[in-house]
Design a protein that fits this description.
4 helices; about 70 residues; about 75% helix
């Protein structure tokens, strides 16, 4: 698919589909970086040490991020 075809397709998507695509592109741009590997290693260490989140905490964080448009 060419860039103009891709642009045309994306313009037909609704806001939710464009948001998903944007998040996926951000993920692809970060996934192989050293900064991302360090962040994941740090999160895994915290998880292994028992420092995790309750479902209620995650739901509150999700709602706050959604309200910010993230």
């Amino acid at each position: 698919m060419s860039v103009p075809e891709l642009k045309s397709q994306i313009e037909r998507w609704d806001a939710e589909e464009r948001g998903f695509a944007a998040a996926y592109l951000r993920h692809l741009s970060r996934k192989g970086t050293l900064a991302n590997q360090i962040e994941l290693a740090s999160a895994m260490k915290e998880f292994e040490e028992g420092r995790s989140f309750t479902l209620e905490q995650v739901e509150r964080l999700h709602e706050a991020l959604r309200a910010e448009g993230k």
